[in-house]
Amino acid sequence: MYYIGIDGGGTKTVAVLSTSKGHILAYQQQTAATNPNRVGLDRCLMRLHDLLTDLKTQHPTAYANVRSIYCGVAGGSSSTYQQAIIASIRPALPEHSFITVHHDAIAALYSATLGQPGIIHISGTGSVTYAIDALGNEHRLGGWGYLLGDEGSGFAIGRSAIRAALTHKERNTPLQKLILQHFSTDVIENVIPAVYQENGRDAVAQLCPFVFQAFEEGDPLAEDIIVDSANGIAIQLVSLINRINNHGDGTIVLAGGVMNQTAIVSMIKCALSKETSSWSILTPTVPPVIGALIAAIKPYEKVTKAVETNALRFLKQETDYK
């Protein structure tokens, strides 16, 4: 039997068709989002159909024998979206295959734990803190979108950067200089119209790397922003540990583009050290699409280390894989 994993994020969507041992037979990536909250349900469904068509074209025999498909879609926790996606892609898949649609946090978690329980904080453009406990129960904090709170996200960090630059405009700091250069202006107030445009959320999130650059240059404003973000993430993680009542050993995963910055990871680990000294803190070993594949395999077959090894061997050959 064969399995399909789909990782549908806010910026790109990736799908793989594989054996239970991680031998990837078909792979497809789109530079387009499938979060229905951002792109709309119709575009989400169209892009998922395109991905499935590409997988089928690459390996029709394996596709005809797909046992399970797991769609990890940003925004996919809504039962309305789940039902709509399943109803839409059901005719495109073999009749005997089982379809699961859920949000992308499970795929991200499994990309580090290889199917084992744990807690994950994802900080990309948005953020969410999520857990699967030893009994398989799910727990969640945040992930409600930038209007309702995306603590520690790229957007939140970028927003804090603009606020700091506006508040401390008399201080010619590295952070302010980087923001002005990014928006090609000499006046900090000129960035405001860009923030309130249709794509303003992305424009704000794009400032996140500049905060870390300014921090490396010794900017105290940037340091304050990163420390506050790290402490906020640590508070959410500890809160989720307490919620699942697990004070023994466990695994915490830090994922997403913001977590590629060693400064914030170090600060989070420091903030957690007193509360979670017995917990392991990991970063993903494979991309989220392989976590989605693991989620597809897990209910039917034992997930082994071979999935990680074989998937990485294949993905490293892909010129567009990062």
Description:
The chain is α/β, with parallel strands linked by helices and 322 residues long. The protein has 14 helices and 10 strands. The strands form 2 sheets. It has a 5-stranded mixed sheet, sandwiched between helices. β9 (250-255), α12 (262-272) and β10 form a beta-alpha-beta unit. α6 (154-167) crosses α10, α10 (208-216) crosses α11 (220-243) and α11 (220-243) packs across α12. The longest helix has 24 residues, at 220-243. The model has no long low-confidence stretch (mean pLDDT 90).
Tell how many strands the DSSP assignment holds: 10
Radius of gyration: 20 Å
Secondary structure tally, helices = 14
Low-confidence stretches: none
- The strands making up the biggest β-sheet line up spatially as 3-2-1-4-5
> In sequence order, what are the helices and strands, one letter per element?
EEEHHHEHEHEEEHHHHHHEHEHH
For the sheet with most strands, the description reads: 5 strands, mixed
Q: Mean pLDDT, nearest integer?
A: 90
Percent of residues in helices comes to 40-55%
Helix/sheet category: alpha/beta
Strand content is 15-25%
| Mass-distribution shape | globular
| Intertermini distance | 28 Å
Summarize the entry for a quick read.
The protein has helices at residues 36-39, 41-58, 60-63, 79-89, 105-113, 154-167, 174-182, 192-195, 200-205, 208-216, 220-243, 262-272, 288-297, 305-315; strands at residues 2-8, 13-18, 24-30, 66-73, 98-102, 118-123, 127-132, 138-142, 250-255, 279-282.
